[in-house]
Amino acid sequence: MTEILTLDEIKNWCKIDTTYDDFLLSALEVSCIDYAERSTGLYFIERDVTISFSGMRTSKWERFPYIDLPKPLISTLTKVETIVDSTSVIVPTSYYTFKNISNISRVIFTTSPTYDISEPYPFIVYFTAGFGSSADDVPELIKTAIKAHILYLYENRGDVQSEGGLGAPLEVDALLNKHKVRYVF
To answer: pLDDT higher for 158 or 35?
Structure first.
C-alpha cells in the first residue's frame, strides 16, 4: 500500500519527538486509512480492482441494463468479462458504455452480452479506482481526518470500551463526510 502520510507528518500532528512509538504510529495509520476508506466508500490511492457480479440491474432511470461499480473515482475501466460455457470471454467494448459521474460508476450494456445464467457470478469487471497514484492526489481534508483519528487513538491507547473498541471521534466522521459516497437514484 502506498503511504498517504509520512511518519514525520504523523509525529508532527501528534507532537511526538521520540522514535519509541514509531511502529505503533505506523500501525495506527494503516488502521485509520482502512476506517476512512470504509467510511467514505472510496479508495484513496489508485489500485487495480477485480469484482465479480451476479447479473445486470435495470431501473427506470437508465435506458439499458447496467452494473453498478462499488468504488467511484474510477480512472480506468480495463475490461468486462462474462462466463460462457465455463469459459471467460471478454465483452466487446461496443457492447457497453462507461458512466462515471460524481458518485455513480456504471457499466451500461447497450447490447446484452451472452452469459451463462447457471454461473453464480457471470460478470467480472476490471478497473482502476482512487484519487490518484500518489499521496499528493489525496485531498487534505481526508489526510486531516486520518491524522486526527491517529492522534485520538494514540492518546487513548490502553482505554477499553466494552463493545466495538474506541471507534472514531465525531470530528473524524465530520471531516470524512464531505467525501462519503451517497447513492441517490
So the answer is: 35
Which grid coordinates belong to 20?
Answer: 519509541
The answer to whether 127 and 77 have CB atoms below 8 angstroms apart is yes
Report angle CA 21, 27, 29 to the nearest 5 degrees: 100
Q: What is the DSSP code (8-state) at residue 137?
A: G
Give the bridge partners for 140, in sequence order: none
Residues 6+ apart with CB under 8 A from 6: none
Is residue 55 within 8 Å of residue 126, measured between CB atoms? Answer: no
pTM summary value: 0.83
How is residue 69 written as a grid cell? 461499480
CB atoms inside a 10 Å sphere around CB 162:
5
